[in-house]
Recover the amino acids of this structure.
């Protein structure tokens, strides 16, 4: 079966793109819940219910679904896993691979939390992800003595979805300024939203060259490759489909502009 990548909208294409480049022989499907995006300003219950519905649909054609969306990973993943997933199905999120990279842990290293090289970390994410504190919770299982200052980047996803990169870059500068008022010298910055790699250079420029910026797409692709190498049956066969709950023609246009490669979506 194919592996499915889920996002609230177009941002998860950054992860889909990295995964298809990293694993060119894998059939990688995509599901964008564009009709209900953005998720980042919704309540946790709302995000959970929308994510559960989308993943249930994706399990019809994929044994493994990756929640590329940080907001869904933060607000819904744990609840879905605790409620139990159907036999033979899996759902994974994006926080754990990122935190493993930040804390220099190997895949699935569940040893007790320990001191790590970075101790001042800036997290940029949607309001819902920041409110969930899921990043801090997952980090506390793996590292001690790390200060995390989170900045909710209101408006940024909308500006990127609208293709207004001038506004997006201005918002990045103002959110970085706000973060630096709370934490003047972060050592590392986490771009905790699928859309933010599209303005990564603006984040790096505003933060300064001495701040290490962690962006998820390649980290998730590497981690998925590792995961599938242990479960080869999950990565066999299937055909890739691009699905959206939005208007397929409009989403196809935007997606093609986004990744600068032709993409055709069908109705979910
Ligand atoms: N894709 C979501 C994330 O990674 C952000 C977009 C949204 O708010 O729906 O957090």
């Amino acid at each position: 079966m194919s592996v499915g990548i889920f996002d609230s909208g177009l941002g998860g294409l950054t992860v889909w793109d990295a995964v298809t480049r990293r694993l060119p022989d894998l059939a990688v499907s995509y599901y964008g819940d564009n009709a209900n995006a953005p998720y980042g300003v919704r309540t946790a219950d709302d995000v959970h219910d929308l994510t559960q519905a989308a993943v249930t649909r994706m399990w019809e054609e994929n044994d493994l679904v990756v929640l590329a969306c940080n907001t869904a990973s933060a607000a819904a993943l744990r609840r879905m896993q605790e409620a139990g997933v159907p036999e033979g199905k899996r759902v994974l999120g994006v926080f754990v691979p990122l935190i493993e990279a930040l804390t220099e842990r190997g895949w699935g290293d569940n040893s007790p939390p320990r001191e790590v090289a970075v101790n001042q970390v800036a997290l940029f994410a949607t309001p819902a992800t920041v409110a969930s504190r899921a990043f801090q919770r997952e980090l506390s299982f793996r590292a001690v003595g790390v200060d995390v200052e989170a900045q909710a980047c209101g408006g940024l996803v909308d500006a990127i979805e609208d293709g207004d990169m001038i506004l997006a870059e201005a918002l990045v500068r103002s959110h970085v300024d706000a973060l630096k008022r709370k934490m003047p010298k972060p050592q590392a910055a986490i771009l905790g939203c699928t859309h933010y790699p599209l303005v990564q250079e603006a984040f790096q420029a505003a933060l300064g060259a001495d701040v290490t910026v962690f962006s998820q797409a390649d980290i998730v692709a590497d981690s998925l490759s590792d995961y599938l190498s242990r479960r080869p049956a999950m990565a066999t066969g299937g055909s890739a489909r691009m699905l959206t709950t939005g208007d397929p023609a409009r989403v196809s246009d935007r997606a093609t502009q986004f990744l600068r490669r032709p993409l055709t979506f069908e109705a979910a």
Q: What stands out?
A: The first strand starts at residue 2 and ends at 7. DSSP finds eleven helices and twelve strands in the chain. The chain has a mean pLDDT of 93.
